């Protein structure tokens, strides 16, 4: 009782082999695309590594690169096998390899699905990493004289200019941290001393933002100092003013950017998974059809192809028995098992008397 | 006395045809590259066309595009000719086609060389165009409410940020222009009134620059106002401060960017030119070598191939004569011809 049995004529077998050859090559191309997408994602994450210091984020692009390479090799091999399946003589070369190949492809297909799910699940990790990374980067913005942090100012400025964003959630984040270093503050000035005193931690907080928050599309020259003070600037109302600064927060901007990349990668992975699944099914049918051809003896005859020889339950049962009996190779199991893998010595079926004839009658010439 | 005569055996003719076929396909790829380089350069020039005063520099990419397309045709036909050259029945088809083909091909190949020379020669033109364009851009920076000029602010800001430059020659250009619109100036303020009065044209000039001149590499927060006033900022000396603003002028930045592109394109086009010339020379040799076979029974004999049937001077004289015949100087020519014929006859008669 085979699962999904299909009859294959010689013609159909050849056509199946050809179609599988083409599909395998398409899958090689998708494998290459996946590999390059993984590489691209790795580069993009590395570019922002100063604001996204999480090591775990590199797992997803590494996995994509590995999946892409494995897909290429598996499908390249598959293409070769399918190409050779048209000719019985060449098929015999691959006969022993085909079943392990199918099992490997099955597990690999499963891995691809896991990969696709990881892509979509990466968003949460990304958000967390960005939250802490950006917060620290802004905090150390002023520390251009501290080794190890001296590039953070440039990184944050270029980030805000490139992604058209300001601050973590929005531009008000800059009001809560001291982003002007003490080296550039005139400590003898009354105003500076007053500000420092009015703050619990002695930080110099201003309602100003760095220049990289300025929006070039604004019709007026950038207002970056005393942003909340409507009277400090002529014809300026903080509450109703059109965006002079970037309104978006950098966390949201980066998240959107990476989510877009991940979505397109996820789509490619799903397409690759579908191709792999079809390759798997096709190769399984081809393998069983070719084996049945060999069993029949005639290379041009019709043969059956199936996914599983017996039903799924029976297959699971027989495999389970094999595994169970692997450990009992020295014992004789006389419980009447008819599994061909178990060697049952004939002494357990002794007594060829008239009452215990073997089932097959030997013709007697009288 | 032919120009650059070479003897061709049957084998070398065959090899020439095969080599030419390969060469023509390489040249097709090269022609596509030339075309795409022209398109790329045009796109780059178009991106910043708002700060350029005129579009004369576009002649360079336009020429490259035309030459690229023409080369595709030339090399396609070269491939077809060499395929037919070894078959004497099909080759005579091309006879009347080849003369105009060579003239056109030579013209377009020389045009390639002209394009390369132009790309170097038009540097001055580009610089002038940028000078005027940038000057206008800076002048109309504040006019974000006047239609036709409202985009200048955004253009100049993005240009300065992308190319890391400030002003036309340097940042001091911003001191000579009023870049803050009157809409945002408080005319009741004493400071504003003083500044405007102190200026002959009544403009509000300050020693400040827009935010797009700020250099992100600077270790301190950007100082964009009161740049020349050392006492306005703590621990600041404008004479020694180098990283605060971009030091380069935008004209210099743009010119070096475009000249960089045009230099690399020029090198590429020169190699395409050499390839194209070799294709044309091979086609000419193949043509002359195969034409000598016409009418012969044995197609495997040795023939001679040449570039020109006669010497360069004689060929030019011949061509000039044919051209002059069409002009209304006929009568003078006829009379001169008669005279020379008589002169020619006189020495002949004593000999006979």
Automatic annotation (TrEMBL), chain B:
Spell out the PROSITE patterns in the cross-references. Answer: RDS_ROM1 (PS00930)
Lineage top rank: taxon: Eukaryota
- Subcellular localization: Membrane
* Record membrane topology: Multi-pass membrane protein
**Gene Ontology BP term (one):** visual perception
Residue ranges of the TM segments = 20-41, 62-81, 101-121, 255-275
Q: In the UniProt record, which is one GO cellular component term?
A: plasma membrane
Please provide the record's keywords in A-Z order.
Membrane, Transmembrane, Transmembrane helix
Query: Family per UniProt?
Result: Belongs to the PRPH2/ROM1 family.
Q: What is this protein called?
A: Peripherin-2-like
Originating organism: Scleropages formosus (Asian bonytongue)
């Amino acid at each position: 009782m085979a699962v999904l049995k299909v009859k294959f004529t010689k013609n159909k077998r050849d056509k199946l082999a050809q179609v599988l050859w083409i599909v395998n090559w398409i899958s090689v191309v998708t494998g290459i695309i996946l590999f390059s997408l993984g590489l691209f994602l790795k580069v993009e994450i590395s570019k922002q590594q100063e604001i996204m210091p999480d090591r775990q984020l590199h797992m997803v692009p590494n996995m994509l690169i590995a999946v892409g390479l494995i897909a290429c090799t598996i499908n390249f091999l598959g293409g070769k096998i399918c190409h050779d399946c048209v000719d019985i003589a060449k098929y015999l070369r691959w006969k022993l390899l085909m079943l392990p190949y199918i099992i490997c492809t099955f597990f690999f297909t499963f891995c691809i699905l896991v990969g696709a799910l990881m892509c979509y699940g990466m968003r949460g990790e990304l958000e967390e990493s960005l939250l802490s990374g950006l917060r620290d980067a802004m905090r150390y913005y002023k520390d251009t004289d501290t080794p190890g942090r001296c590039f953070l100012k440039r990184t944050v400025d270029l980030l805000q200019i490139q992604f058209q964003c300001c601050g973590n959630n929005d531009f008000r984040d800059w009001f809560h941290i001291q982003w002007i270093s003490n080296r550039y503050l005139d400590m003898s000035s009354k105003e500076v001393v007053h500000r420092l005193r009015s703050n619990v931690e002695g930080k110099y907080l201003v309602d100003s933002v760095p220049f990289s928050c300025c929006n070039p599309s604004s019709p007026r020259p950038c207002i970056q100092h005393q942003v909340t003070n409507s009277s400090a600037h002529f014809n300026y109302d903080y509450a109703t003013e059109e965006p002079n600064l970037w309104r978006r927060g950098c966390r949201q901007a980066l998240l959107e950017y990476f989510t877009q990349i991940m979505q397109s990668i996820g789509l490619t992975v799903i397409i690759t998974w579908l191709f792999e699944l079809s390759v798997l099914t096709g190769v399984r049918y081809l393998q069983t059809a070719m084996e049945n051809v060999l069993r029949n003896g005639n290379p041009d005859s019709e043969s059956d192809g199936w996914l599983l020889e017996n039903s799924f339950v029976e297959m699971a049962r027989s495999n389970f028995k094999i595994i169970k009996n692997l450990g009992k190779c020295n014992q004789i199991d006389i419980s009447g098992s008819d599994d061909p893998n178990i060697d049952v010595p004939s002494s357990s079926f002794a007594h060829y008397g008239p009452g215990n004839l073997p089932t097959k009658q030997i013709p007697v010439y009288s | 006395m032919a120009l650059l005569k070479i003897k061709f055996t049957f084998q070398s003719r065959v090899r020439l045809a095969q080599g030419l076929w390969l060469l023509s396909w390489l040249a097709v790829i090269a022609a596509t590259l030339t075309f795409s380089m022209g398109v790329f350069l045009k796109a780059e020039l178009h991106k910043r066309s708002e700060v350029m005063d005129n579009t004369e520099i576009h002649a360079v990419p336009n020429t490259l595009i035309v030459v690229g397309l023409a080369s595709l045709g030339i090399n396609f036909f070269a491939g077809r000719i060499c395929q037919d050259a070894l078959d004497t029945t099909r080759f005579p088809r091309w006879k009347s086609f080849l003369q105009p083909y060579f003239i056109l091909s030579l013209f377009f190949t020389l045009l390639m060389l002209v394009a390369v020379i132009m790309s170097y020669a038009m540097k001055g033109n580009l610089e002038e165009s940028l000078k005027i364009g940038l000057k206008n851009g800076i002048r109309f920076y504040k006019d974000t409410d006047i239609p036709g000029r409202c985009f200048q602010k955004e253009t100049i800001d993005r240009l300065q940020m992308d190319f890391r430059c400030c002003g036309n020659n340097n940042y001091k250009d911003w001191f000579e222009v009023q870049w803050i619109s009157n809409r945002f100036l408080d005319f009741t303020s004493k400071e504003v009134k003083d500044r405007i009065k102190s200026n002959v044209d009544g403009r509000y000039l300050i020693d400040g620059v827009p935010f797009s001149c700020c250099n992100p590499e600077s270790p301190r927060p950007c100082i964009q106002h009161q740049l020349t006033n050392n006492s306005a900022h703590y621990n600041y000396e404008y004479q020694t401060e180098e990283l605060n603003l971009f030091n380069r002028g935008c004209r210099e930045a743009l010119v070096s960017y475009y000249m960089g592109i045009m230099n690399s394109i020029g090198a590429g086009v020169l190699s395409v030119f050499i390839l194209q010339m070799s294709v044309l020379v091979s086609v000419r040799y193949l043509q002359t070598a195969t034409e000598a076979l016409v009418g012969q029974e044995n197609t495997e004999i040795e023939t001679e191939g040449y570039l020109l049937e006669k010497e360069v001077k004689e060929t030019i004289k011949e061509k000039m004569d044919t051209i002059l015949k069409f002009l209304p100087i006929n009568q003078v020519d006829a009379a001169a011809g008669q005279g020379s014929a008589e002169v020619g006859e006189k020495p002949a008669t004593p000999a006979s």
